[in-house]
Every structure is written in C-alpha cells, then in structure tokens.
Amino acid sequence: MNRRHLLVRIRLVAAVLAVAVVSAVAAGGRDSITSRDLKEWLTYIASDDLEGRALYTTGVGLAAAYLEDHIHTWGLKPAGDHGSYLQTVRVLGVKSVRHSTVTVEVAGESRTFNDGDGITFPPFVGGKRQVALDRVQFVGYGLDAPSANQQDYKGLDVKGAAVIWLGAQGPKGLDAAANRRVLFGRSRYSIENLQAAGTVGPEMSFGGGRGGAPAAPAAAPGAPAAGAAAPAGGTPPAAAGRGGQGAQPAQPAQPAQGGGRGALPTPDFTTVQRLDSAWTPSAAAKDAFFEFLFSHAPTKYDELKRKADAQEPLVPFRLDGVKLTFNLNDDYEVVRTQLAQNVVGIIEGSDPQLKNTYVAFGAHYDHVGYAEGEVSPGLDGTPRRMGAKGRVNAIDDRIWNGADDDGSGTVSLLALAKAFAAGPKPKRSLLFVWHTGEEAGLLGSRYFADYPTIPLDEIVAQLNIDMVGRNRDDKASEANTVYLVGSDRISTELHNINRAANASMPKPLTLDYEFNDPSDSESLYTRSDHYSYASKGIPIIFFTTGLHPDYHANTDEVSKIEFDKMTRIVQMIYETGARVANLDHAPVRDNLGPRAGKATATTTAGR
Predict the structure, then answer these.
(1) Are 86 and 105 in a shared domain?
(2) Phi, psi of 577 (to 5 degrees)
(3) What is the DSSP-derived secondary structure letter of residue 255?
(4) Where residue 479 sits, what CATH number does that domain have?
(5) Alpha helices, H only, 295-384
(6) What proportion of the chain, given as a percentage, has pLDDT over 90?
(7) What is the mean pLDDT of residues 233-240?
(8) What pLDDT is attached to residue 144?
(9) Are residues 60 and 173 in the same domain?
(10) pLDDT class of 520 with cuts at 50, 70, 90
(11) Domain boundary at 308, 329, 350, which?
C-alpha cells in the first residue's frame, strides 16, 4: 500500500471514528434529550387513539404497551412482575366491620366512645393497634394560614401529641371556598408537617364524607410523620386545580349492574395499600365527645363552640390531665379486586456497590378518559356534554387527551430513560416507574410504595414529573419557570444538588417554590405520586409548571405544549438525577421540613 493510499485510509478511519463519537454523544447524555423526540412520543400518547388513557381501559393498555416497546428497545431491565415490565396493581374493594373506639380520661374519669356513637373513624383505620396519648393540645382552628393572619400553631410543639381543633368553617377573614383544601387538610397538616400522633376535629358541615378521614401510614424510622391520605372532616368536592387527586380517600367501587349471581357487594372503601399498615389515628367527633373532653378545661366546650360558630378567635391551650387512647380494631373483607399495571424498568449502575441503590424517576401515564354521553341542551338551553370527565372547553370533543397531565411527564420519563441508557452509566442504578391510577388517588405509586419490586430502603431519592409542558396560566412571563415541591422537606442536600444542577445548565431555569409552602391552598405536595414515596421517608422532588385553563379539560392537547421549555426542564432533571446517582453517599435525610416557599425563586445554586 503506497503512502497516498495509506493517508486516505487513515483519514477515512478517522472520519468514521469522528462520526461514531458524534453519534454516541447524540445518542445519550443530557444534550441528547430533544424536542423532536418529546413531540413524537407525546403525539401518540395524547392522541385520540388512546381515548384519554382512563384506568381499566384499552387506551391506558395501549399506552403501557408503547412504553414497554420503547424501554425494551433501549435495553432497560424489566423490573415488574415475573421478569416483565408490568407490575400488577391490585385495587381492593373492602367491607369494613367497625370496632374502633377512643377512650377519654379526664381528671380520673373515663368514657369510651364507639365508632358511630360520638366519634367517627374513617372506614379504613389501618391495622389493629392501640395508640395512647397523654399529651393533648387544643389548637384552636388548627390552621397555619399566614395569608389570612391565622397561625394557630405558632410557638406550639405538637410532635407526638394528640391535636384537637374546632370550627368547620374556620375563622372570620378566611375565605372558606378559596381555602377549602386548607380547611379539609387540617388533620393531614398537623401529622405531615408537625408530626402529631393523632387528631380529632369536628364533623364537617360541607363537602360530604362521613367525618374523619384516614391518616397515612407511619413514615419510615427517622422520617417525618406521614401525611393523611385524605383531609379529616370529609371529602372536599372536586375543584379547579389538580382536583384533589391523591388527596382524597379512595371512592367505593360500584356494584356490578344487572343483579343476579354476577352482582358484587358494594365496598366501604377501595385501596391499594396494605390492610395491616400502621396508620396515624384521625377521627371526627360530635358534641358529646367534646363536652367530656373539655369538662375540666379552663374554657368549657359550650363557650368554645359558641366562638367557633361565630368564627371568633380561639386561643390554643393544653388539656392537662387528659389522655386519649385510640383502639383501632376494625375487621376487613376484600369483596372486589380490580387490576391495573405500573410499567417498571431499571438501568443498572456501574459501581459494584452503589449499583444496589437507586435513584427513582416517576410520572403517571393515566388520564381521565372520554365522555360516553352526547351533546344535549342544558336547563338554560346551553349545550352540554353528558358524562363529561372534567371541564368542557370544546363542546364537540369527547376525549380528554391529557397532553400536559400527564402526557408531558410520561414522555419526559421516556426521554430520561433513553438518554441514560445510551449515555455514560452513573454509579447507582436508575429506577423508572410509569405509575397508573394517579387520577384515581395515587393508586399505582401507593401500591409500589407498599409492594415495591426492589427494596424500598435502597431508593435514595425519587424525582416525580407531573405537568411540565405549559406555562402557568399560559402567561408568557412564566416561560422560564418550573415549580419545585418538596425538595427541601426530607433532604436539604437533595435540594442543593438540584439547585447546583440547574445552575450548571447553559440557560438555567427559574426555580420557584411557591407550592412548597406548607400553607399552599392547593396542597400540591400531597397530590401527585411523589407523595407516596415521601410518606415512606424517601427524599423527593416534584417538578411541575403549574396549572392552566386546560387542566382536566378536553382541550389539554399536544398543540399547546411548549416543547422547547419542556426539553430544558427534562435536561435539568437529567442533570439532577445524574448527580445524585454519582454521589458517593445517599443524600442526607435531615427532615427539616419545608423552608423554601413563596418568597424563594432563583436561577442559581445560591442560598
């Protein structure tokens, strides 16, 4: 071979190698996450062909198959049941036989109140156990609402105490309609944020429900107390915002139609969680309970009730010499089982030791479906869509496509999986879970948290993506903003890692923590799948771009997605996950609670 031919061969080989290197860079890593891919995938996921991806439908099954096909192609390891990518989620309809009681001891006297007689427990109280609390604190209205100048917990430490509150409507100056979630979330707030060990409030006079509502299972050792699965005092009606998904108690499954041998009993509640879980006691009470409870208090119940009814100030005080003993003793019978599927895959880490721990990424791939009913005139003659699944912004459209909620999160997770699969492998393994049934009450994530396919204590952090495809309220001023919820609550280190990751981006995003504020009236911290992991003590970050006029409307479509912004958000999440996955230790769980709030917004690693 002469010199000329040798030079040609060398240049050819060099050119091939250069192309290979460029291709490798394009195939994996942060910069391989593109708007083109996101748009291609979302165009299918949010298409009419998938009929709104409602739970238990063909449409959501097609979505699961689409996800399986992609992650199989990219070489993710199946992490569902029996070597597959699918984890079966068992949604149980349960009959409850109510035996629970609470015994009140006041100044040497004792009275026991049975469920349904002076006290009302939720239909699901968790596993059998007894909780005795000899520190009982009256907290007035039980509200922490600085915007309404109502801070009943100021200066109080209720960790490990029984918390008592009154006043269904709240105090004067608090708009009950605008703050519905705050009012209904009082039990959850005291447990989740302040680590109360039990709560009793009044039966609510609005919003339906039977009174009390279940509190969530106890958190992992050393973690903050878990929050309630639903606010005490009843179930709030659906509303604008995220509609209470994940924050409401599971609704009873309907009996089969037609009667005969195929008819199913009507359950008292539905759940995907373990029936033997240790749940924080939470209940609602009638006058007789409160009259005895406050019988030796400095202010008697009659006066407290008068003030609460008049929405006058209620001054907190400790109930000395009072002890509450909750005896949680219900029996459960499963009368119905429905099946759904999470999609689960793993990218194995490169470090021989750290690959046994995981950074988890999650999103929900279900939505609310389509309306079976036709268009007909309403009472005022205005056309209406019968059987609407949410807001109707386009009368002729029967499908709720859910492009942003949460098609955007679904395909963001695909982009992350593809980028990590093709790029350099981090030290830790990466867990990808596309959760089902979020819209029905966090079903898939709650199931995974109770029945994980990998050891839950090996998950060092969970990054959840839900609605990252738009600007909040469609405002141009929000074009660079992403909202982070929960990032500092369990691990300050995770919070700082994310801020540093964002600061490293070519064009950092504005990180806004408004919805991380514990007094957030929308209670977003409890309303998406990250909450199921946080309730187990796992550090989380919830990424969202906020609500808009098409939220849960039949006009949440691909044409309205801001793909360039969405791409930058996914790249920032990639960078955050990669940093956590390469950390030589798990992010420290200091459990300092929410500090970043409404006044915190930054585009740098700062503070």
Answers:
(1) no
(2) -65, -40
(3) P
(4) 3.40.630.10
(5) 301-309
(6) 76
(7) 31
(8) 85
(9) no
(10) confident
(11) 329
Note whether 425 and 536 are same-domain residues. yes
Check residue 371 and give its pLDDT.
97
pLDDT: which is higher, 100 or 216: 100
Closest CA to 39 of 604, 605, 562, 575: 562
Same domain, 367 and 233: no
CA of 361: how far to CAs of 155, 288, 429, 434, in Å? Answer: 38, 49, 11, 9
Q: Give the pair of three-digit tokens for residue 278.
A: 């240790």
CB 312, CB 171: distance < 8 Å: yes
CB 105 within 8 A of CB 323: yes
* pLDDT value of position 603: 63
Q: How far apart are CA 159 and CA 185, in angstroms?
A: 17
Whether 330 and 125 have beta carbons less than 8 Å apart is answered as yes
Q: What confidence score (pLDDT) does residue 216 get?
A: 39
Q: Which of 157, 146, 148 is nearest to 190 (CA)?
A: 157
Q: Which DSSP symbol is given to 405?
A: I
Residue 344 lies in a domain: yes
Cα Dmax for the chain: 108
* Predicted confidence (pLDDT) at residue 439 exceeds the cutoff of 50: yes
Between β-strands 399-400 and 322-328, what pairing exists: parallel, antiparallel or unpaired? unpaired
Judged by DSSP in three states, 286 sits in: coil
Domain that holds residue 436: 28-93+338-373+402-602
On whether both 40 and 80 belong to a single domain, the answer is yes
Please tell me whether residues 54 and 130 are part of one structural domain.
no
Structural domain includes residue 298: yes
Share of residues in the chain with pLDDT > 70 (%): 84
Considering only CA atoms, give the Rg of the chain.
Answer: 26
> What predicted TM-score, i.e. pTM, was given to this entire model?
0.86
- Overall domain count for the chain: 2
Assigned domain for 380 exists: no
- pLDDT given at position 5: 47
Lowest-confidence segment of 65-74, 231-240, 438-447 by average pLDDT: 231-240
SS3 526: helix
3-class SS of residue 439:
helix
**Domain end: 273, 297, 329, which one?**
329
Do 220 and 344 fall within a single domain?
A: no
**Exposure of 288 by Cβ count < 10 A (0-12 exposed, 13-18 middle, 19+ buried)?**
middle
Among the residue ranges 5-9, 335-339, 435-439, 537-541, the one predicted with the least confidence is: 5-9
Least confident interval from 196-210, 331-345, 349-363, 466-480: 196-210
Q: What are the two backbone dihedrals, phi and then psi, of residue 439, each rounded to the nearest 5 degrees?
A: -70, -20
Contacts 24+ apart (CB under 8 A), 149-157: 149/173, 150/174, 152/314, 152/316, 153/190, 153/194, 153/316, 156/316
Q: Which residue has the tokens 């969530």?
A: 216
Q: Please tell me the predicted confidence (pLDDT) of residue 420.
A: 98
Q: Is residue 262 part of a domain?
A: yes
Residue-wise pLDDT for 563-596, tens only, equals 999 999 999 999 999 999 999 999 999 999 888 8
Secondary structure (3-state) at 450: helix
Cα 532–chain centre separation = 6
Contact 359, 425 (CB under 8 A): no
| Total length of the chain | 607
Residues 305 and 362 in one domain: no
CB atoms within 10 A of CB 471: 18
Beta-ladder partners of 463: 361, 541
Encoded tokens for 527? 């309303």
pLDDT at 62 over 50: yes
Residue the block writes with tokens 């209720």:
158
